[in-house]
Automatic annotation (TrEMBL):
Name of this protein: (spotted green pufferfish) hypothetical protein
Keyword Lipid metabolism listed: yes
Entry keyword annotation includes Ribosomal protein: no
Alphabetical UniProt keywords: Lipid biosynthesis, Lipid metabolism, Oxidoreductase, Steroid biosynthesis
The organism's taxonomic lineage, starting at the top: Eukaryota, Metazoa, Chordata, Craniata, Vertebrata
One Gene Ontology cellular component annotation held by this UniProt entry: endoplasmic reticulum
Molecular function GO labels: oxidoreductase activity
Example of a GO biological process term: steroid biosynthetic process
Source species: Tetraodon nigroviridis
Gene3D superfamilies in UniProt: NAD(P)-binding Rossmann-like Domain
């Protein structure tokens, strides 16, 4: 085989590998964001109770409502008792599910955990815990852990208005919970996955451009320095 033929073979092999990778990514996205909406995992199979922290506003409140809509009882955890009682009543009235509230401030550190554990003891529970590392650690024990990395969501914290680019908290929670059992890492919805991908490509291109500029600048400086000393 000539050198030209060898290079053509290597180029073709690389092209096939890239095509396979693209097809695999498309399939994973289709399964995660399209098929998951058609074949939703019954979250009650994880337990009768869902434990949601930050449950009085934003994404946490939206998750609590969506979990109740899907048939789970909800333990609401937050630091403001007045807001906890209001959200608990809203969920009970809208969805007819049981609720419990735990008033706690996580900024107080590990000292709060024994009290929280006491209030959760005896519940068959499904805890929202977002970490890809934890999934690898606990998978062998039959525990499913999902890492959720959203993009732009309209909440009190972000002060963003719902738009074609920004998801509402309720809509995001609905789509993100569809992916439970289908993926251990998710952006929550197809729109966010595309936005994150575009953002990563932009940063990669930006870093490449900066590196190229540095190389050009260094080369120009070296040439200029050589010219002056000759």
């Amino acid at each position: 085989m000539t050198s030209v033929g060898l290079l053509a073979f290597i180029g073709g092999l690389i092209g096939v590998c890239q095509l396979v990778k693209l097809v695999w990514r498309c399939w994973c996205g289709f399964r995660q964001f399209v098929l998951s909406a058609l074949w939703q995992v019954d979250l009650r199979s994880f337990g009768k109770w869902a434990v949601v922290t930050g449950a009085t506003s934003g994404i946490g409140k939206a998750y609590a409502a969506e979990l109740a809509r899907r048939g789970l009882n909800v333990v609401l955890v937050s630091r403001c008792n007045k807001k906890l009682q209001a959200v608990a009543k809203e969920i009970e009235d809208r969805f007819g599910r049981e609720t419990r509230t735990i008033q706690v401030d996580f900024t107080e550190g590990p000292s709060i955990y024994p009290a929280v554990a006491d209030q959760l003891r005896g519940l068959e529970r499904f805890v929202l815990c977002f970490s890809e590392c934890l999934h690898a650690e606990y998978k062998s024990k039959g525990i499913t852990v999902q890492c959720v990395a959203p993009f732009l969501v309209s909440t009190c914290m972000t002060s963003l208005e719902v738009s074609p680019v920004v998801k509402g908290a309720s809509e995001f929670a609905h789509e993100a919970l569809n992916t439970v059992g289908h993926s251990t890492y998710t952006s929550g919805c197809l729109r966010h996955a595309l936005q994150v991908r575009a953002r990563l490509q932009h940063h990669t291109h930006h870093r490449f451009s900066q590196s190229l500029q540095c190389i050009i600048s260094s080369s120009s400086f070296s040439f200029f320095y050589f010219f002056r000393t000759s």
